[in-house]
Design a protein that fits this description.
- Strand 3 and strand 4 form a beta hairpin.
- Strands 1-4-3-2-5-6 form a 6-stranded mixed sheet.
- Helices cover 45% and strands 11% of the residues.
């Protein structure tokens, strides 16, 4: 490994928007088909989502839909002052999630699925109607943005719904949605967490960290240090200071907090500066 890489000087190019509004409707259909086929015991199976069972994850997805429609489509005013920082936002979200899931325990599986079918269609209608380059009401916090375009906010909505459906599928032993149609955009959107994860890493301008993800939905990306901070680029820098390699299954699980950190570290191959390469393990495309 040698020398720093200059952005744009060695074949890398800036990442482009990821347009996934058209995936929300079929993703919702996959969820409804899955939930309609669950046995009574399946709804009570534990998931990777902490103490939540399948029914709790499904209830949370209904909450996600209701919030999107109420706060964004219907422009409902926020109650109270907005959170001051990421810590306050996370605390608020955890409280709201817990309150909703507790109340939703009174909703039976059939009604819960019916409601998800209704809200899923309305969310898809709304997101498909947006100008992808318009300004979202709230920024994507896990990317550290102060302002986000609709396409990125829609990408966040997609990855959250896709990830929670993966949790349900894992819990009941159903096939995961890991075809390139789903996994490639989930990875592309989630990788936008990398510049924020590296924000405190000191390095000379032009320093590059290559991330190589193996698999049909993978590829190569480069984090390049610019005077203003770290930027994400498509392609592998010719002169990286570090190169981190992992398979696509580990990649999405790492970025969406669906794998034990030690297990992820054991699967990560680093060449060059291990300190810079291992910072990949701190990247999260979720609020946690």
């Amino acid at each position: 490994m040698s020398g720093p890489a200059a952005a744009g000087a060695d074949g890398v190019r800036p990442v482009e928007p990821v347009f996934v509004a058209g995936l929300l409707r079929p993703l919702s259909s996959e969820l409804i088909r899955l939930l309609r086929g669950l046995a009574c015991d399946d709804w009570l199976r534990p998931t990777r989502a902490g103490d939540w069972r399948v029914r709790d994850v499904a209830a949370h997805l209904l909450d996600v839909d209701c919030r999107k429609l109420s706060l964004h489509r219907d422009a409902m005013p926020l109650a109270g002052d907005p959170p001051r920082d990421e810590g306050a936002l996370l605390a608020l979200l955890n409280r709201l999630n817990a309150e909703w899931v507790a109340a939703a325990s009174r909703i039976g599986p059939r009604l819960l699925t019916d409601l998800l079918e209704l809200t899923g269609c309305q969310v898809a209608d709304y997101l498909e109607s947006l100008d992808p380059f318009g300004r979202a009401r709230f920024p994507v916090a896990w990317a550290g943005e102060a302002e986000s375009a609709h396409w990125f906010d829609i990408g966040r909505e997609f990855t959250e719904r896709w990830h929670h459906q993966q949790q349900i599928r894992e819990a009941i032993g159903a096939p995961l949605l890991t075809e390139a149609r789903w996994l490639r955009p989930a990875i592309e959107v989630s990788l936008r967490a990398l510049p924020h994860a590296y924000r405190s890493a000191a390095a000379a301008p032009g320093t590059a960290v290559v991330v190589e993800i193996r698999g049909a939905s993978g590829g190569a990306w480069s984090l390049v240090r610019n005077p203003a901070g770290w930027g994400l680029f498509v392609g592998a820098s010719d002169r990286p200071t570090a190169c981190a390699r992992l398979d696509e299954d580990t990649a999405w699980r790492l970025l969406l907090k669906a794998i034990d950190p030690e297990l992820a570290a054991g699967r990560l191959e680093i060449e060059g500066d291990r300190g810079l390469g291992s910072l990949l393990l701190s990247a999260l495309a979720v609020m946690a």
